[in-house]
Amino acid sequence: MKVTIENKKGLKKDLKILIDKETMNSYMDEKYEEIKGTVNLKGFRPGKVPKEVLKRQFGKAVFGEVLDKVLKDTSTKALEENKIKPAGQPKLDLKTYGEDKKLEYVLSVTELPKVDIKSLENIKFDQYTVKIDDSETDKRIKEIAKNQPNFKDTKPETKAKDGDLVALDYKATIDGKDFKGNEGKNTQLTLGKDLFLKGFDKQLIGVKKDDEKIVEAILPENFPEKELINKKAKFNCKILNVKHPEEVKIDDNFAKNLGAKDLKDLKSLISRQINDEYKNSLDQLSKNQILKEIEKIKVEEVPENLIEEEVKILSQGMPEEEVKKNKKTFEDKAKTRIKTGLILNEFGEKNQIKVSEVEIQNEVQKQLRMMPGQEKMVMDFYQKNPSAVASLRGTVYEEKILNLIKEKGKANKKEISKSEAEKILKEANDQMHDYNNEKKESKKKSDVKTANEKKSSTKTAKSKPANKKIKKVSKK
Length: 476
What we know:
Among the domains are: 2-110, Alpha-Beta Plaits; 151-247, Chitinase A, domain 3. Helix content is 51%, strand content 19%. The protein has helices at residues 21-36, 51-81, 134-146, 252-257, 263-295, 304-314, 320-325, 327-350, 357-370, 375-384, 386-408, 418-475; strands spanning 2-9, 12-19, 91-96, 103-110, 124-131, 150-153, 165-173, 183-190, 212-218, 232-246, 410-417. Strand 1 (2-9) and strand 2 (12-19) form a beta hairpin. Helix 1 crosses helix 2, helix 3 crosses helix 5 and helix 5 crosses helix 12.
């Protein structure tokens, strides 16, 4: 194989590739040997059909298969030997080809630009850790204790009030008739939370142990028996017990009930938990800083074909007029995104970063945990959409690259308070909110303009027949 780079226009290159006749014939002979054992022709024993007979019968088909294979193998090899990474699909122009002939073709390719990633080794960014005051930890523990109250028995004559725990048996009827699911035994309700049926708790205020009470309530929209939804039911309640909430004592026993070794260990765990709540968001801000720094790295030329593809993605669903109007903005944004992607990918390749199937599955599992009750739907989505899995792989790949850049970079470590963390995150969220509002407003204006243009064209279309009609009348 002989390869000549014929012209070099920036990133565009034409590779003239020549495969001599002898090499092509050897490929053909190899293919004939391969099919000889599978062909059954009358008058010949299996595997004994002469090559000349095979050429007459299958020559065109064999040459087609050989040509595809040779083009694929030699074009890949030519790019690898000349260290050319194509940006998009190369174009192939056949010049000379045929049976018992040399193969000559031109491979036109747009090359990915060379990028310098040395500056990533010393990239600067802020890295935050949140210092949690003891008062914040104590406050969180008190909130946990408040949501896990102990209840103690009261005297039989004690009347139930908001916050008390009432245990009861009930039997319900609608229009005096029983229905499926109308009975409950030792049902426990904390009055005031209204977790059973709307308005049910309020009617139990003032009941005592051994009281009987009729409570009326509307069956909810999610009631299993569909025909009974929004029907009024009467609940005949037998009060078994009334308990008052007792303040939980925050001590070692309380901590052990929550899975900690003791109260000191619980405080440490809670402090770490609060820190983790801010860590992911603050880490994302650090990564955003890194991406901003990467955008400053110079890349001499960005392939036009990649810019065009990226602009299509950015402007998807927008009116053509709006796309033309904002073409420069879209192209600038596309260049920035492509440049960032090229730099990150180069860093990933140089550092041999790979994404394993286990990591993909872990990411899927993370998403499953974020969508309880919809696990099957999420799994089905990824199983039926290979492109979604590829996108997920890209996300994990970029995450690993950014994590490694953070490790190699120069972190400006900052210890901040919880209130400072909240302020920083609020400012970042406000900026994102303003950006999204600008996008919405721009789209709204575009939609209004498009709607007005449609109205205008409709009026014009309607006016034309009227003019014709007037002309006809005037002629008469």
